[in-house]
Design a protein that fits this description.
Strand content of chain B: over 45%
Helix content of chain B: under 10%
Radius of gyration of chain B: 13 Å
Strand content of chain A: over 45%
Largest sheet of chain A: 6 strands, mixed
Structural class of chain B: mainly beta
Distance between the termini of chain B: 36 Å
Order of helices and strands of chain B: EEEEEEEEEEE
Oligomer: heterodimer
Distance between the termini of chain A: 40 Å
Largest interface: A-B, 23 and 19 residues
Largest sheet of chain B: 7 strands, mixed
Radius of gyration of chain A: 13 Å
């Protein structure tokens, strides 16, 4: 079966750095997405990786290793507004997104 | 651009009632999707469409129907509501290619009692 695993919850301090991991097993691979979802709101796009390596976008970076079925989202200089759930999703061979359950990130002052 | 819009925002249904969740996008996107999101679970794909007149089942289509008569609109129909359909429903769209980013509507919270 297809499976996306990510931690349920993480806590970090304002100003610090946090890494959210995602491992996946899917039928085929056509890219990995990270979305941010604030409580009660819709998911919004953060990053897309299809090749191995690190993609940097401001305070957020995303890494992919296809051979290991592994990705992480790195958030630097954490702000209180970064408190949200972070969803990892993999596009499978049918070009459908398979979603993880999300990681709830709690930022403390 | 309004992006992706959904109505209603919240609805309470009785078991056995039917309703249509509306979704519209003004970005001229070919691809549209319906997902449900249950607490502690990942988004599950219900139905999707690659263009007007073309729809296909996703992972959890039972109890739902869709139509796509125009590029802009993609309504989701619940015929006989059941408590298991209590969830948050998100509509999303993406441009021409399937690998593009998906843009989500604000969601409809449905409670079936």
């Amino acid at each position: 079966g297809q499976n996306i695993d990510q931690p349920t919850e993480m806590t970090a301090t304002e100003g610090a750095i946090v890494q959210i991991n995602c491992t996946y097993q899917t039928s085929g691979f056509n890219g990995l997405f990270w979305y941010q979802q604030h409580a009660g709101e819709a998911p919004t796009f953060l990053s897309y990786n299809v090749l191995d390596g690190l993609e940097e976008k401001g305070r957020f970076s995303s890494f992919l290793s296809r051979s290991k079925g592994y990705s992480y989202l790195l958030l630097k200089e954490l702000q209180m507004k970064d408190s949200a759930s972070y969803l990892c999703a993999v596009m499978d061979s049918n070009y459908q997104l398979i979603w993880g359950a999300g990681t709830k990130l709690i930022i403390k002052p | 651009n309004a992006g992706v819009t959904q109505t209603p925002k919240f609805r309470i249904l009785k078991i056995g009632q039917s309703m249509t969740l509306q979704c519209a996008q003004d970005m001229n996107h070919n691809y549209m999707y319906w997902y449900r999101q249950d607490p502690g679970m990942g988004l599950k794909l219900i139905y999707y469409s690659v263009g007007a007149g073309i729809t296909d089942k996703g992972e959890v289509p039972n109890g739902y129907n869709v139509s796509r008569s125009t590029t802009e609109d993609f309504p989701l129909r619940l015929e006989l509501a059941a408590p298991s359909q209590t969830s948050v429903y998100f509509c999303a769209s993406s441009p021409r290619e399937a690998q593009e980013t998906q843009y989500f509507g604000p969601g409809t919270r449905l409670l079936v009692l």
